[in-house]
From TrEMBL:
Residues 439-457 have a biased composition (Basic and acidic residues). The keyword Phosphoprotein does not apply. Residues 7-239 form the AB hydrolase-1 domain. GO terms for molecular function: hydrolase activity. The keyword Hydrolase applies. It holds the Pfam family Gluconate_2-dh3. This is Alpha/beta fold hydrolase. Keywords: Hydrolase. It comes from Sphingomonas mollis. It comes from the Bacteria. Residues 433-457 are annotated as: Disordered.
């Protein structure tokens, strides 16, 4: 699918990249990269078994093969790795991540495995590769209903060819590692999927252990499935991934790869990078206002759409203004003839709706919206019944609103990339700042992103 992010898939303990074959078949049109984690599948010879080493293994593949946005899907053991990579992305070390899908995922905290079952699985591998009976038992205990014969046979083969040392490394150490403090709360769009018949990693534990690490998380439950959902119900898994990719694309303004790499480079200080990453966080689809009412937020969104028309993947300027009002943030001044910022916004939006007539400002077509805003800008808006701001105050308020919207829009990394602004790259964290050697127009530096050079010329 054109402009869609690449979908990266990480498998479960004892599985391999091919455990996603049926899912990938149903994601026709999307570029998919299913990766064998060290010690499993075709990566049996790789001995990087620690959680951090597995994350490094996947990160290297992503850097080598993806030059643009991507979404990561992590199943069970792969889910813990996916969340670690999501944290790296939010901190600027792995740019381009647009969303996360966790399927029966191991959490950042120690995985809740029944002690007796853990001991039994450790015992299987302590003597070497698992026997066919042990592998069959492992697969059978993690499904809700029998699999097709060919699918079952492939799953058993994957378990048997798993490196015993990798199997033990996960059960004895990796699954017990606590990364929760290092992960914190991530703001990427996330979908957490649970099987209705899963035990240790079912819906309750997904909500308790994984959901708190994602500020924008939805939880979906697949009925009639247990732990091995990509094998049990690949169509349902593919549908959920497809839906989440669409949401991730729609809610996240695109930061081109060349600009994402610039942000991640050593020319940008860690403090500046953190600020830019915070600004690039996706807006919540179901944002609930804190200062404005739902109706006032809808009016402000309609107003912002005329002040700064945006394409798909728009920045929700209205929600960000409300969040700033709630946090008490502002530009440090206000017009003396206007009330405090939060009161001015509420009063201005109410007055705008009343001036628009029945249906309010959001109910007008674009032509009538623009005509009304031009009158407000000129200070000759008609006085309306029960208006809370006068025409003169409305002109001042509208000036403030435009300044707020433009400031937030211009400060977003996607906008910086669009207009070719790379002044953020004036120096990293060393004592000697790289700075700019060339300052003439149409004479870019060699390091400047290619897209910027083309615009300047």
């Amino acid at each position: 699918m054109k402009d869609a992010p690449v979908i990266v898939l990480l498998h479960a303990l004892g599985a391999s990249a091919r455990s996603f074959d049926a899912v990938v078949d149903r994601l026709a049109g999307y570029a998919c990269i299913a990766i064998d984690l060290p010690g499993f599948g075709n990566a049996v010879g790789d001995t990087d078994f620690t959680v951090e080493e597995m994350a490094d293994h996947v990160a290297a593949i992503i850097r080598a093969r993806i030059d643009g946005p991507w979404v990561i899907v992590g199943h069970s053991m792969g889910g813990k790795i996916a969340t670690i990579l999501a944290a790296r992305s939010e901190h600027g070390a792995l740019p381009g991540l647009a969303g996360v899908v966790l399927i029966a995922a191991s959490p950042p905290s120690p995985e809740p495995i029944d002690d007796d079952r853990r001991a039994m699985m450790i015992g299987w591998a302590a003597k070497g590769p698992l026997t066919e009976d042990e592998a069959t038992n492992f697969v059978s205990e993690n499904i809700a209903a029998p699999l097709p014969d060919a699918v079952m046979a492939a799953a058993v083969v994957d378990v048997r060819r798993s490196d015993s040392a990798a199997w033990l490394a996960w059960l004895e150490r990796g699954s017990r590692e606590d990364w929760s403090g290092r992960i914190g709360v991530l703001h990427l769009p996330a979908l957490i999927v649970a099987g209705s018949a899963d035990g240790d990693l079912g819906e309750a534990n997904q909500r308790r252990l994984n959901a708190p690490h994602y500020a924008n998380a939805d939880v979906a439950v697949i009925d009639g499935a247990a732990h091995l959902m990509p094998l049990e119900q690949p169509a349902a898994v593919a549908d959920l991934i497809r839906q989440h990719v669409a949401i991730a694309v729609a809610t996240r303004p695109t930061i081109p790869p060349h600009f994402a790499r610039l942000i991640a480079s050593d020319r940008v200080s860690a403090r500046t990078r953190a600020i830019l990453i915070d600004r690039a966080r996706p807006d919540a689809v179901d944002y609930v206002p804190h200062v404005l009412s739902s109706g006032q937020l809808a009016t402000l969104r309609a107003l912002m759409a005329r002040v700064i028309p945006q394409e798909e993947g728009a920045i929700d300027l209205a929600a960000r203004i409300d969040a700033r009002l709630h946090a008490g943030e502002g530009d440090g001044w206000r017009f003396a003839d206007l009330p405090a910022d939060a009161d001015a916004y509420r009063a201005g939006l109410d007055t705008l709706d009343r001036a628009a007539g029945a249906g309010g400002f959001a109910g007008l077509d674009d032509e009538r919206r623009d005509a009304l805003l031009m009158r407000i800008e000129d200070g000759d808006c008609l006085v309306v019944t029960d208006a809370t701001l006068s025409p003169a105050q409305m002109a001042l308020w509208f000036e403030d609103v435009r300044a707020d919207g433009v400031r937030i829009w211009l400060a977003h990394p996607a906008t910086m990339a669009r207009i070719g602004y790379d002044g953020i790259a004036s120096g990293g964290d060393g004592w000697r700042k790289q700075g700019f050697a060339k300052t003439r127009a149409d004479d870019p530096e060699r390091w400047e992103p290619r897209a910027t050079k083309e615009r300047l010329r």
